[in-house]
Amino acid sequence: MLLSPQAERNWESLCEVLEDILEDQSHKQLFALEIGSGTGQHVIRFAQKLPFVTWQPSDIKEECLDSIKAYIAATHVKTVLQPVLLDASEPWDKWAGVSRNSCDVIIAINLLQYSSFKTAQGVFSGAGQTLKPNGLLITYGVYAVNGIISPSCNEVLDEELRKLNPEWGLPDLDVLRQQAYGNGLRLERMIEMEDYYKCLVFRKL
């Protein structure tokens, strides 16, 4: 199993956000797709705290898929499906069998800053197709606002990401808002988190 220290630090605050957002739907069974599940630590914790949600983890890396499988086996969670290989930059109909209007929630944690713009476009395009009406796309990460990155620690992070891959870097909030609008979603909430991170909550109209 892979271990992410950051995932261990932030899963609880993320879970509190999810509990707050989904509280009014806790009387029914929901289906959630996590894009870029990474180690699998988040989805396992979410499943333990939100038993009314069935989770579909996914990732583009085989080592992450193996780690997710190991966490599922070790924790015996019943509401996490086996992970699927999913490349969000691909058209939504190639998203490992995820069908149109099938998801109540789509979550992407720390994905967009480690991805190309094509992947960001794919996330919003896919969400527009696979979310149910009133479904939610929730992204967590660090963002630029109107092309401005602040404070200085976020500028350093952006520079480091672009050194690793020129296509990576902090996505701009207004660009994401436009991507959402073009795919039938609107930004409903922006939740300030620790260390200048934010949760963006988009709703499908």
Report what the structure shows:
With 205 residues, this protein is of the alpha/beta class. It is built from 6 helices and 7 strands. It has helices at residues 5-22, 41-49, 62-75, 117-130, 152-164, 173-182, and strands spanning 30-35, 53-59, 84-85, 103-109, 131-141, 185-192, 198-204. Strands 3-2-1-4-5-7-6 form a 7-stranded mixed beta sheet. Helix 1 (5-22) packs parallel to helix 2 (41-49) and helix 4 (117-130) packs parallel to helix 6. The longest helix is centred in the first third of the chain and has 18 residues, at 5-22. It is globular and about 45 Å long. The mean pLDDT is 96.
End-to-end span in angstroms? 38 Å
Tell me the radius of gyration: 16 Å
SS content category: alpha/beta
Beta-strand fraction estimate: 15-25%
What is the chain-wise order of helices and strands?
Answer: HEHEHEEHEHHEE
Strand tally, please? Answer: 7
Fraction in helix:
25-40%
Helix tally equals: 6
In short:
By secondary structure, the chain is α/β, with parallel strands linked by helices.
Structure characteristics:
single chain, 23% strand, 7 strands, 205 residues, alpha/beta, globular
List the helices and strands and how they pair.
Blueprint: H1 5-22, E1 30-35, H2 41-49, E2 53-59, H3 62-75, E3 84-85, E4 103-109, H4 117-130, E5 131-141, H5 152-164, H6 173-182, E6 185-192, E7 198-204
Parallel strand pairs: 1-2, 1-4, 2-3, 4-5
Antiparallel strand pairs: 5-7, 6-7
Helix pairs in contact: 1-2, 4-6
